[in-house]
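Q: Please design a sequence for this.
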């Protein structure tokens, strides 16, 4: 009898959820977990793992050392779109396909970007704080020059599933939408612009890029200075693409009138970070993609891909150029 596939699921995904996902596999698979959310426990658990469901928070990173500790490893499933917590090059060198959950939260994140833009344009959070504090800042809101969103030129940096969906939603509201990506999309309804031109013509700049060595620090102080006066920044991508200190400086200079940030250089955001005290910033705890619908989508993607690997079918969304047909070692 063939030994069961050993599926190692890393935190923070709930263990009971994972067990239920793979119950239909019966004796074909065995689900395991690290004994603790610690590096040593990860390396120990990897020794017997055939498949790993990675840690989307990055706390237990599947880096090169972790790959070396997993001689049986045949497949890694990232339960997220971003792959910055797994070393895709090290996995490719080891002959291990790695897949992400591309598109699972595209609508949810795109809606957050639009909602956050509404909040910035109309100063919703600022007004809410004033009323809750006992004030009635009606004329103060007027003085802050609230904007109707359809009058804003929207630039989207990154045009994957999230960027494309955000472009569609902003266009439906009447916004003039442009985008930049490394490979222009001839089929895109939005207008393509080179990156610096995009910044110079964007009243609302939406970041929807993956974090890679090429995109880290891509939009720093010099590029933020290209934005029109009183522009707004919405970041649903990753911290580090536009450094937090560059955002603070742009806010203090007035180049940015506001920012809606779901991601940061360091997460959680340090308690004494100046962004916490800036009233022109809408802060979110990396939760743009956590709608109920997105979570159902994610569970389905992880279940279907890992099940395909166990049953000898091709997996989807391989991100490191490997053959999507997973082979046991």
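A: Design:
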């Amino acid at each position: 009898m063939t030994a069961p596939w050993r599926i190692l699921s890393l935190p923070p995904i709930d263990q009971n959820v994972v067990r239920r996902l793979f119950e239909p596999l019966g004796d074909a698979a065995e689900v395991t977990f690290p004994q603790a959310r610690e590096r040593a426990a990860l390396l120990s658990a990897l020794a017997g793992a055939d498949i790993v469901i990675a840690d989307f928070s990055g706390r237990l990173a599947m880096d090169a050392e972790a790959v070396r500790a997993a001689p049986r490893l045949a497949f890694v499933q990232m339960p997220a779109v971003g792959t910055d917590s797994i070393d895709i090059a090290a996995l490719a060198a080891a002959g291990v396909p790695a897949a992400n959950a591309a598109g699972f939260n595209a609508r949810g994140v795109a809606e957050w970007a639009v909602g956050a833009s509404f909040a910035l344009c109309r100063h919703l959070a600022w007004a809410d704080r004033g009323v809750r504090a006992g004030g009635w800042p009606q004329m103060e809101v007027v003085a802050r020059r609230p904007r109707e969103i359809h009058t804003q030129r929207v630039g989207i940096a990154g045009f994957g599933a999230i960027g494309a969906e955000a472009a569609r939603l902003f266009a439906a509201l009447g916004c003039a939408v442009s985008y930049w990506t490394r490979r222009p999309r001839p089929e895109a309804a939005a207008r393509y612009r080179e990156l610096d031109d995009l910044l110079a013509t964007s009243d609302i700049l939406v970041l929807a890029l993956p974090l890679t060595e090429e995109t880290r620090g891509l939009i720093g102080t010099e590029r933020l200075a290209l934005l029109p006066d009183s522009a707004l920044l919405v970041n649903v991508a990753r911290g580090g693409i536009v450094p937090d200190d560059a955002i603070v400086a742009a806010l203090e200079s007035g180049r940015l009138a506001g920012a809606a940030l779901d991601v940061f250089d360091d997460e959680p955001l340090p308690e004494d970070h100046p962004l916490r005290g800036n009233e022109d910033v809408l802060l979110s705890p990396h939760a743009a993609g956590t709608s109920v619908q997105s979570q159902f989508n994610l569970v389905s993607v992880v279940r279907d891909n890992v099940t395909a690997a166990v049953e000898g079918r091709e997996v989807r969304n391989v991100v490191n150029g490997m053959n999507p047909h997973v082979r046991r070692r």
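Q: Thanks. Anything notable?
A: The mean pLDDT is 96. The CA atoms of residues 119 and 125 lie 7 Å apart.
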